[in-house]
Structures
1.
Amino acid sequence: TNRAKQQNNTLHISTHILSESSKDNTQNHTRYQLTSHLQSNTLELDDKAQTLSYEHYYPYGGTALIAGRDKTQVQQKRYRYTGKERNDSSGLSYYGARYLAPWLTRWINPDVAGAVDGLNLYVYVENNPLKYMDPTGNDKVGTISWHRIVTHTNKRLKHNKKLNYWIGEDHLSATGSILLLDLVATTNIRDIMLEHTGATPGQHAITDMNFIDLVLKHRPISDETRRIFKRVRQLAITHNLLYVGSKGWTNTKLDVCLLGSINNYIALVGSNHIAQDTETEGFSTDEDAYPAYRHTNETDNIALLSLEEVDFYRKHGRIMKTQEYGVWVKDRYGIKGSAFLMLGSKSTMRREFGRAAQPVPENLNNLQNYQPRSQILTMVQRFASLFRRK
C-alpha cells in the first residue's frame, strides 16, 4: 500500500501559537489556535473559520471538556494547556525544565532553584493557576501595569514613605533615558541622580540647563527618540540634579548621602551597577558599586531593567549571588518593547507588590518571558484579517 506521510508545521509568534499546519500527500490542513489569558489553546478553527475543536480545562490543565468536528480532528491537537505539548500516553505536559501532572496538580520534578519559593519543590505556580503561568517550568514572576506603578509610587510619596528607583541602561541606547523621562513625567519624584564618573562627590549638574537638555547632550539618540523627549519636555524643567558614580565609582554611598536622606529619587546608571554584584573587569571601584541600589539602601531601593537589557544579560550572562525578587511591568502607553523588570530584595518587593513579586534566577535565561496580554488581541486581529474581504 502507498501510505500517506504527514508533516506538521507550527507558526509561533513570540510565545504564542498562531497556527498549526499538517500536510500529507493529498492536501494541506491549517489549524488556527485561539488562546485564553493563560495562553491555553481553547478554540481551533480551519482556514474557513469553521470550528475544528474546542477544549475547556480544569485549573491545573486537565481536560474538562473537549469537542470537535470529528475524533480525528480532535486527536491532531498538539498544543494544549498554557500552550504546552501534552504527551498522549502519559498525560504529562512538557514545559522545558520539567513536566506537569495535571491530575496531581504538581510538577513531577523538583524546583532546581531549591526552596526559594517555599519548602514544597513540586507546587505549581504557588497553587494559583487561575492567575499565574510558568512558561519554562522555572519561575512565575507576575506582571503588573504601568498605571499601577505610577499610582503606587505617588501614593507612597503622598504619605511620606521612601521609594527610590535605579534604572539600568546601556550608555549607547536611549531606552533607559526614556524610562526615566516617563517616570519624571508621571510621578512626583523631583530628585534625579545621573551617572558621571568624572564628577566630584556632591557635584550638581549644570544649573543653567534643564534636565531634558542635559540628557540630550550626553546621549546619542535617534530622531524618533528625540520626539519622545519633547513630549515630556515641559514636565521636566525643575529638578534637583546630582551625580552618582563620582571619581570612578569610588564614593557610592557618599554620593547618595549628599542628595539628602529625606528625598526620594530616580537614578540612571549603567546596567552592570544594578544587575551584577561584581565589578566590571578593568575598573577599580568600591564594593558598594555592584549592585549600587542594594548597597546604598536595600530597604527602599528598587532596580528597573528594560526588556532590552534583560535580553542582553540572557545572551552574555551575569553574576548575582544575592537572591533577587521581581515583577514584570507591562509596555508603557502601548509602546511595543517598553516593558521592564523591577528587582529588589524579597522584603522590599513583597512589601510593595505582594505575591506578584517572585524569585528571579541569576541566569536570566531561566526567567519566564514577558507575556504582554495585548499580543492575544493582536493574534485574533491577524486571524480575522485572513477572512476580511476588500
2.
Amino acid sequence: ALGYGDQDVDSTVGRIGWQARFDGGSVKPYVQVTYDHEFEDGQQASAWLQSMPEVGMYKVPGLEFDKNYATAVLGARLNLWGLNSNVGMSTTTLQKRARDVSLFASFSGSF
C-alpha cells in the first residue's frame, strides 16, 4: 500500500467575461461567459511504499490541467416558497482533457 505525504494545492484563476441579466418579473434569468486563466503551476505528489519505508519518499508529476479555458453559466434568480433562490448550470469548455457540467441551487431567506 502507498502512504502519502501532505498534499498542498494552490489555485489562482483570473477571468474576464460578459454577463447579461434580464428582469422577467418574478424570474430573472442570466447568462455569463468568461475566459479563464490559471496562474499556478502543476504540483508534484509525494508517496512512499508502506511495506518498505526505508526506501523513502518518491515524487511523481501532478496532474497537468489546462491553463486557459472558458466557462459558461446559465441560471435564474427567483423567489421560491418565500426564499430568494438561484438555480442554474455551469460548464467549462476549450480544455484538452477535461469536461464538466455542474448544476447548482441556492436558497436564502431572513428570519
3.
Amino acid sequence: MSFLPASHASYEYASLTNSINSKHTIQGILRAKDAEIESTRQELLAAKDTASTIYSQIKKATADLDKANKPSFLESLLVPTSTRQETVSHLQSTLFHLQQRQDPALEAVPVIEEQYKKLLDERKDIALQVIELQELRGQLKDLLDKAFTVDQSTFDSEDGVFARDSELKKRVNTVQLKIIDAEKNGIRSEKQGASGTRQSTCRFCVDVLE
C-alpha cells in the first residue's frame, strides 16, 4: 500500500483535526435543536387542539342558546319562564367567555407555526454541518489508512511517516480501530441523530497522537 510523505501527512492531519475540533460540538447542538423542535411541535399541536375545542364549544353553546330562546310549545308549558330565562342567561355568559378565549387561541397558532418553521430551517444548516463533520472524520480515517497502514519494512524505513516509532504505530492502530468502531456504532446519517461515540472521535485522535 502506498503511503504519504511525512510533511504532507502531517499538514493534512493538522488541517483535518483542526476542522474536526472546530465542529465537534455540532452534534450536541443538533440534539438540542431537535429537542426544541419537538417541544415547539407539541406546543403547536396543543394550540390547535385548544382552538378546535373552543370552536366546538362555541358551536354547541350557540345551538343551545338558539334552542333556549325558541322553546317548543310543550317546553313552554312544562318549564317555568324564570327557569328558561336563567338557562338563557347562563348560555349567553358561557358563549361570551368562549368568544373571548377564541381570538387569543386562534392568534397563537400562526405565531407558533412561524417559530416551528424557523427552527426547521435552522436545523437544516446544522444538519449540513453534521454531514461535513462526518465527511471530515472519513477523510481523517483515510489519511490514517494511507499514512500508517503499511507493512513493517516500510514502516521501519526512513521514508515512512513517523518512521522507526513502533510505539506510535501501535497508538495509531488504536486510533484506526476506534474510528472504525465509531463508524459502526455511531450515526450513519444526520436523520438518525447524533452519537456520543462519533462526537468523541476527534478527541481521542488528538490524544493518542500527541
